[in-house]
Structure formats: C-alpha cells, structure tokens
Amino acid sequence: MKRSLWLLMLFLLAGHVPAASADSACEGRFVNPITDICWSCIFPLSLGSIKVSQGKVPDTANPSMPVQICPAPPPLFRRIGLAIGYWEPMALTDVTRSPGCMVNLGFSLPAFGKTAQGTAKKDEKQVNGAFCHVHWYKYPLTYWLNIITSLGCLEGGDLDIAYLSEIDPTWTDSSLTTILNPEAVIFANPIAQGACAADAIASAFNMPLDVLFWCAGSQGSMYPFNGR
C-alpha cells in the first residue's frame, strides 16, 4: 500500500510541477517515471548465468547459480533470493551551475543562495574551466513499479536525496579534497590521463575497463572529487 501511494505521488508531481524556477539559471522538471526512462535499456535479462531476454546494451558477468544469499536488514542480516541480472534504474544525478537547483525535481532550493556559484570561463591562456554542483537521488523505480520480483534481492526504498555538493566542504576546497583523496595526485599527469583513451574506446564498443578506475570513458577523468 505504501509503495502504491508513493508511486501515485510521483505521477502527480511529474504532471504538475512546473519547469520554471525562482532562479532564472535553474532549468529542470520532475522526471516522469514512464516517459523519461529508457525501459529498453534494462535488457538483457538473465537468471543466474542463463540469458532470459536479449538487449541492445552489453551485459556484465553473471553468477553461475540463480539462487544467492543477499544482505537483509536486522535481525535477519542474510536472506535467500534469485540472482536476476538487468540494468536497474535506481538513481538520478543532477549536474548544475546554480546552487540548490534540483534539476530532476523541477525546483530550486533558495536556502543555498549564491554559495559557490558555478562558472564557465576561459582564462588568459584560453583554457576551458567550469564549476558545477552535483546532487544524487535514490530512485529505485523497478521496486516501485513492481516490474521484477526477485524474491529477496531487489533493492527497495523511497525517493531520497542522498548527496548535495552544496553542503560538502570538500566540493569547493581542493586542499580538503586532496587530504581525503590523496590518490588523485597519482592520476594528475599526462600518462594517467592518456590511458583514459583506452577506456573511452572500450566504453564505446562494449564495457569500460575496471582497471582504469580513474577514467570515465569519453567523459574524461573521475578525479578530483570536487566541482572543478
């Protein structure tokens, strides 16, 4: 019952939340769970190592046995479930230059004001530069719609804002970022960045290379973990 009420609220918000915001630099709208999701992208579908349905996107390695032991909340801690493999829409991400602009929710949070206002510019050396904020939402849509029942291993939950870069002090301070993620220094060189070309090619034709974890395919480097 709770899941049905939550899904009904999503549809109502998707149809009635306006795209306009009090901040003129903030553009967005509430995500429609039916029309804005690439539902064909959840395939291929597998049960253990058995391919149940083909898809247009590559598949990762699957467990050999369909029955698995999954984490569970206390006091159980472990439970038996089916290993159903598919690409699950379970999170949303905002990238914005306007502090507090909740792009995927269609409104702006005025409490942040102009704190760490994002920019896009070129310096005297004609080098591109930008500063953006990031928001991450929990969005277990498959669970809400009850499309796939995994008998224990499906991730559930409600819509939740899990991360706001505006309240993260390391997002605007490169020194703090380096203290928490010192490994970023290792990848701040032409050799490490040049290796990302291999990850970009692998991502374009199949899957990214796990060994090049500091690369994000054709989108560049994962480091540093801040807005710059």
TrEMBL record:
Annotated signal peptide: 1-22
Top-level taxon: Bacteria
Keyword vocabulary terms for this entry: Signal
InterPro entries: TraU
UniProt KW Signal keyword: yes
NCBIfam families: PRK13737.1
Name of this chain's protein: IncF plasmid conjugative transfer protein TraD
Source organism (scientific name): Escherichia coli
Gene encoding the protein: traD_2
